[in-house]
Structure formats: structure tokens, C-alpha cells
Amino acid sequence: MMAEKMLEHLVMKRESKSFVDSLHAILTHSGQFQEEKYMLAGYTGMAFKLSVHKRLLPMSVTAYGQWGVAHQGGIDNLGLFTIYDGGRSRHPTFAYYQQDAVNWVKRSLDEGKGVIYWMPEFGVIYGYDDADQVFYVQDGWSKEPHILLYDNFGLNFTGFWYCQIFGDQVQLTEQEMVLESLRLAIEDWDIPYRLLPDQNIASGRLAYDVWIEALHSGDYDGSGAAYLLDSYCQSRTEIRMYLHDVRGLWTELEQALLCYNRIAERIQQMRTFLVREGNGLVLREDANEELAKWLGYAKLLEEQAVDSFRTISAQYADRKRSTVPRWGTHSAR
Q: What's the pTM?
């Protein structure tokens, strides 16, 4: 018997990192998250992620680590059960994983829950039709759905595939969630390379240095530089709004908020460095030196903010990071 399913009123809108946009659409539709999107970006730690390719390529924005590992901490912090899979579509076993994924994606839709899918970037699978052997996918930009054949599931020009579904949820306190989000922020700030052995993409503190160096050299991708700056302005605005709403938990958050408020004072000016050309944004070439100077200033402010996070974190035991299982640590997936 041919089946079909379409999740009505599930709408993804591109505003944040595409993973956050997708996750927010799915969880608000299922009733598992009722707060604003910037709170989701904060709780999951996604707002704090900053990755920069040395040539400021567009992939910088989503190249913040091995996705399964990079996303797991934030999903755990929401108390959500999740299943994900992904890898390289060139692997000889891909066809088997592809068919298995098609089946469990359909089961999730039958249960009324959308699915995060790498298109690229991340989007939401919100329907399927067995008669036509297709999924319906939202990218957050277009009002019309993308049509994805079952046979083409996971195939795209990047060579990577990834999808993720969500199940039931346990409730965590706000203090638990905020504390863990600060620890995720500290990790992302301190780890220079998330995709070793590749060192073309830097993270956290080092990402600022790589970004500034590219601007000084002038050797960078124009559209990528614009997309990176646009994403940066959005994520730092999300952090400021998140800290504003949770600042009452610890006095140190007030100090961190002051730092992000000072970054926010420059955000509107940074946005003036972006100009629309053709179908997208590009970075004004005359803005390089001024933007580099402001990014250096922002890096110092963010360092101060992360130091405030460290002060908060040090007040509580961190069993997740201080306990090593007797079988040792496992490699990143």
C-alpha cells in the first residue's frame, strides 16, 4: 500500500545557523520548545560556534566540526532523544545506509516529527509520497518545497550526507541548561581546529585571527566573506539576547552581557560593509582594514566574556568532562 504524509504548519525560516533554523521549526511544531529562536541558539551552544576558512569560503559557516559530535552536546542539553546518521556518500556501504535512513525518516514523519537534512545547508524534511518516491524538503529561503527522490537521498555536491530525527524529551532546569551552554561556549572558544588534520578551518579564538589575516591579505572569497560576516552579526546578536534573558542566574553573566553589548554596538556598522550584488551579498573591498580592526576589538571582548563563563563553570562539578569511562574515550564520529 502506497503511503504519503505531509506535516502541515511546519515552517522553517532562515534567520540563524541553518541547523538552529531547522531544529526550531521541528521542535516548535512538535510542541517540545516554546521559546524564541535565539534561546534555542543559546541553550544548544550553536550561537557561540565560530568557524572560519582561511580564504573565508562560504562553507566556513557550517564547518564548525564533525556534525554528529558538534550537534550532540546541544541536543543533549535540551533533554532530547535523537538518532542521526551521516558520512561520505562515496563510501561503498552508502547505498545500505541510504535505504535504512529513508525508512526511519518516513517513520519519524508518520509520528508527526520533521527531520533535519543536509541539502546543503541544513533543511527540514516535512513530507513524503511513496507513489512518487519523493520527500518534500524546506530550505528556509523558498516558499516552494524542494523535491528529493528517495534514490537521491544524501546525494549533493559536497559529498557529505547527514540527517537527524528526534524523540521524547526529559525536562532539565534552566540553570542546568544555561550552565552547560556556557561550557559548550568555552569548548568552542578554546579548541582551535575542529576538523583535524585539516587546518584550513579555524574555530573559536583562532577563527578571529584567521579572519583578520584574510582581510589583511585580500586573498579571500567575496561572497563567502559576506556570508560569514552576515552570519557572525546574527549569532552575536543572538548571544546578546540570550544572555540578556538569563543574566539573573549569575552576576558574572551581567559582565559577559556588557561585552556582547559592546560588540552589538558595532554590528549595525559591520552590516554596512555588506552590499547586494547580483543574487547575493558581497563584502565591500574598502571595508577590509576597518572590519579587521573591529574584529580584533570583538575578539578581546569575547575573551573577557568567556572568562566570565569560566568563573561560573568553576563553581560547579563537571562530571561530563572530568569523568573518563573505564574503557577510555571514544574517537569523534
A: 0.93
